């Protein structure tokens, strides 16, 4: 049954990655042209998407503790469908921002927060491989999303039909995941309630309060946030940046999809490697890959530079999600894993400022290059900090360190 759970979450994450952050950047040039938006307004949509996805992260954690994963997935499914329909019908910036807000909330309820917790609990012995498979499915979705949009738009000339297709996918996969998870929760007697209750002991990991008091937790948060900053901003503007430098739409889409393919392979390899390789090293690799991908966009966009971008950006995306999730779990255990992952996601909302800043800079000076350079510097700096960090050590007796 746990294999079915993994498959259901992976299929849903495939859809989320295909239809939100990864393909919105492909649709934005058409949206900007048809609705006469500025690039600052277009970037604001990505900011709203990211803020909604991060700022609401404690809510699904609370819903899971009280009502279970199945109810959480149903709520997220409704939000996703409403968001896709809003984008399909939008006539101005207001509906555009409402649609991205709803998609961010739906991503939060249906995405990594319930999945990492449920998969981590179901696959105690093979957690790294299972989480790696989950993120691999999402990155395959990142490959498929832009290509699917390109195919629909090329054949119909209508970008709105793509969002309606995404709404149908959310209905089917959301219902399937909710039904499967509901059945699994009844069979397995899944633990909800507050962290540390219902038989969980201190030996299973740090309490949330103890973990939040360590500087190592905030280093993991900084690493996740830096990777997300680069990921979100590059997805927002890489396509338009390439078009502005005489790269054809077909070629730009191809390299962005190639990056997503590399990310899928990297996530799978990171999941396997995570069984033996220190998750801290995986996280450093992700940060450096992300930083170098931003630097690659600053270079003259030859085929070699674009290939380097696809390789490094894919490594950064694919390894970052696996590496940070494993690092958090390895350092602090699973006792308060749901709450800690949610807090990390909330703080990482600050990464959503990247697209707004990048869009404003483009409107002001006509280039995305300063934004790419700035975020590359942040990625390299955080990579150095993570590389020098060591695992947290409990103070005093084990019980004292882990007590709530």
Walk me through the topology.
Blueprint lengths: L1 H18 L1 H15 L3 H17 L2 H10 L1 H21 L3 H18 L1 H11 L4 H30 L3 H29 L19 H5 L2 H30 L4 H25 L5 H20 L4 H30 L4 H11 L5 H13 L3 H20 L9 H5 L2
InterPro entries: MFS, MFS_dom, MFS_trans_sf, Proton-linked_MCT
Organism: Novosphingobium pituita
Keywords: Membrane, Transmembrane, Transmembrane helix
Along the chain, the helix and strand elements come as HHHHHHHHHHHHHHHHHH
User: How many structural domains can be distinguished in the coordinates?
Assistant: 1
User: What fraction of residues sit in β-strands?
Assistant: under 5%
Euclidean distance between termini CA atoms:
33 Å
Low-confidence stretches: 191-203, 396-404
Percent range of helical residues = over 70%
Total E-strand runs? 0
CATH topology, by name, is Growth Hormone, Chain: A
CATH architect. name: Up-down Bundle
What do the pLDDT scores average to?
86
Number of helices: 18
Q: What value does the Rg take, in angstroms? A: 20 Å
Q: Main beta sheet: strand number and arrangement? A: none
What is the 3D shape? globular
CATH superfamily: MFS general substrate transporter like domains
Text of the CATH class = Mainly Alpha
Say what oligomer this is: single chain
Specify the structural class: mainly alpha
Transmembrane segments: 41-64, 71-90, 96-119, 131-153, 159-181, 217-240, 252-272, 284-302, 308-328, 340-362, 368-389
Organism: Novosphingobium pituita
Protein name: Major facilitator superfamily (MFS) profile domain-containing protein
Domain Major facilitator superfamily (MFS) profile: 3-394
């Amino acid at each position: 049954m746990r294999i079915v759970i993994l498959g259901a979450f992976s299929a849903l994450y495939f859809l989320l990655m295909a239809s939100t952050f990864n393909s919105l950047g492909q649709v934005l040039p058409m949206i900007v042209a048809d609705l006469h938006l500025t690039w600052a307004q277009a970037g604001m949509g990505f900011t709203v998407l990211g803020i909604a996805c991060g700022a609401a992260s404690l809510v699904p954690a609370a819903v899971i503790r009280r009502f279970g994963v199945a109810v959480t997935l149903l709520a997220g499914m409704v939000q996703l469908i409403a968001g896709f329909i809003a984008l399909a019908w939008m006539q101005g910036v207001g509906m555009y921002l409402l649609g991205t807000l709803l998609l961010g909330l739906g991503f939060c309820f249906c995405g990594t927060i319930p999945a990492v917790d449920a998969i981590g609990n179901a696959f105690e012995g093979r957690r790294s491989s299972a989480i790696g498979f989950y993120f691999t499915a999402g990155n395959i979705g990142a490959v498929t999303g832009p290509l699917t949009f390109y195919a629909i738009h090329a054949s119909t000339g209508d970008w709105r039909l793509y969002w309606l297709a995404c709404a149908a996918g959310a209905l089917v996969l959301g219902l399937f995941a909710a039904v499967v998870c509901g059945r699994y929760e009844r069979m397995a007697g899944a633990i909800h309630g507050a962290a540390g209750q219902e038989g969980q002991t201190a030996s299973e990991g740090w309490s949330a309060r103890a973990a939040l008091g360590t500087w190592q937790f905030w280093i993991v948060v900084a690493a996740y946030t830096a990777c997300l900053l680069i990921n979100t901003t590059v997805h927002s503007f890489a396509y338009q940046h390439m078009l502005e430098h005489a790269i054809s739409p077909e070629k730009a889409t191809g390299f962005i999809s190639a990056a997503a393919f590399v990310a899928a392979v990297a996530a799978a390899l990171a999941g396997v490697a995570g069984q033996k390789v220190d998750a801290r090293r995986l996280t450093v690799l992700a940060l450096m890959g992300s930083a170098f991908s931003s630097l690659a966009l600053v270079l003259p966009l030859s085929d070699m530079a674009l290939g380097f971008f696809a390789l490094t950006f894919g490594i950064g995306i694919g390894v970052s999600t696996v590496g940070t999730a494993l690092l958090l779990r390895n350092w602090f255990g699973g006792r308060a894993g749901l709450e800690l992952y949610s807090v990390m996601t909330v703080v990482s909302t600050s990464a959503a400022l990247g697209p707004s800043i990048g869009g404003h800079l483009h409107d002001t000076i006509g280039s995305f290059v300063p934004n790419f350079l700035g975020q590359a510097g942040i990625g390299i700096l955080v990579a150095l900090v993570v590389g020098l960090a060591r695992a947290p050590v409990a103070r005093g007796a084990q019980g004292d360190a882990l007590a709530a």
